[in-house]
Amino acid sequence: QGRPAQAHELAARALAIQERVKGPGHPDTGLTLVFVGHLLHEMQRNKEALPLLERARTIVEQSLGGRHPQTGRAYLELALVQDAMGRLAPAETNYRAALKTVRNGAVPLLLAQTSRAYGRYLVLRERLREALPYYREAITVVERVFAETRGQSDEIRQQFAGRFNSYHHELIELLVRLHAQDTGAGHDREA
Q: What is the rounded CA–CA span in Å between residue 191 and residue 134?
């Protein structure tokens, strides 16, 4: 918890400076709010993160528009906090808004992260069949980006693969659970 706490302290100072210099409605202020909210979520301080992320969402929606990838990130971070707090209906709304936004953008790993997060949300609510296309989307994107690492050092490629290894494990676990529900659907072959 030491690193997120230190990062939070620095980010909170940067936020205060940005609000003073650029103004409370500036896009940079909104993006810093997203980062501060993310750090608070990592430290499990969701009650503090929630109002910051709600404010961030409003700022980036108004200043960057509903189609900007950073607006999608604001939706995603807000959804993760709402989910952690048990606010399921608004969390699902924000997961869906994040997906809609990041699918229009050119940030593939944000799309993979968002699809996986919403898939995980659905799995935790036993909505397994609904979760499957989101996990597939996340894996497809990660594999496409990994293919672009050809020519990089083995160390870089291994670090990339390790970063997203859990996506594959979660998909396999989902497929095994779906196979247990319907042995004739072919989920075992996909796993």
A: 15
| Single-letter code of the amino acid located at 78 | L
Beta carbons of 110 and 122 less than 8 angstroms apart: no
Residue 75 dihedral angles phi and psi, to the nearest 5°: -60, -45
Considering the entire predicted model, what is its pTM? Answer: 0.91
Q: Are 38 and 77 in contact (CB under 8 A)?
A: yes
Q: Degrees (nearest 5) of the Cα angle 118, 76, 150? A: 75
Interior CA angle at 166 toward 44 and 39, to 5°? 25
Per-residue model confidence as pLDDT tens digits over 37-56:
999 999 999 999 999 999 99
How far apart are alpha carbons 61 and 138 in whole angstroms? 24
Q: Do 142 and 167 touch, CB atoms closer than 8 A?
A: yes
Residue range 49-105, pLDDT digits in tens: 999 999 999 999 999 998 999 999 999 999 999 999 999 999 999 999 999 999 987
Q: Which two tokens stand for residue 148?
A: 């672009």
